[in-house]
Design goal:
137 residues, mainly alpha, Arc Repressor Mutant, subunit A, 2 domains, 0% strand, elongated
C-alpha cells in the first residue's frame, strides 16, 4: 500500500492517532481530550484522509514512519531507553515517571528486574504472614 500524504496533521489529529496506536477506544480518546466521540471520529477521518490510508492500522503504520508516533513507553511516550536525571531516584516521582523508569530498567536488565519482582513477592508474602499473625509489618 502506498500512502499519498496530503497535509500535515494538527495537534488534535496527532493526539487521536497516538491514542489509536495505544489501543484506546474512541470514547477513551474523547475522554482524554475532553471532546465528544464524534469529534474524535472526525479527527480520525481527517488523519486517514491526510495520510492517504483507509484503515486505522495503516494510519498508525504511516504515522510511525512519519514520526507522529514514537516507539516507547505507552503511558508517557518517552523513548524505550530514555531516562532523565529524575529517574535516578524513586522518591517523589510522579506515577507516570515511575512507570516509565520501571519499564526502562526492565528493558535494560531483565535478569535484575526478575530478581526485584521475586524480592517484592517475598516481602509481600512475609508482610501478609505477619498480618495474619497479628503483628505489624
Amino acid at each position: 500500500m502506498k500512502a499519498t500524504i496530503t497535509g500535515r496533521l494538527g495537534p488534535r489529529e496527532i493526539q487521536t492517532l497516538r491514542g489509536i496506536a495505544r489501543g484506546q477506544t474512541l470514547a477513551e480518546i474523547a475522554h482524554d481530550m475532553r471532546v465528544t466521540k464524534d469529534s474524535v471520529r472526525s479527527y480520525l477521518r481527517d488523519v486517514r484522509t491526510k495520510l492517504g490510508v483507509l484503515t486505522r492500522e495503516d494510519a498508525v503504520r504511516v504515522g510511525r514512519h512519519l514520526g507522529y508516533i514514537t516507539e516507547g513507553c505507552p503511558t508517557c511516550g518517552r523513548g524505550p531507553n530514555e531516562l532523565t536525571a529524575a529517574h535516578d531516584t524513586v522518591d517523589g516521582l510522579a506515577p507516570d515517571v515511575l512507570h516509565h523508569a520501571i519499564r526502562v530498567l526492565a528493558r535494560r536488565d531483565p535478569e535484575w528486574w526478575r530478581s526485584q519482582l521475586d524480592r517484592m513477592d517475598r516481602m509481600t508474602h512475609t508482610a501478609n504472614q505477619q498480618i495474619a499473625l497479628g503483628a505489624r509489618p
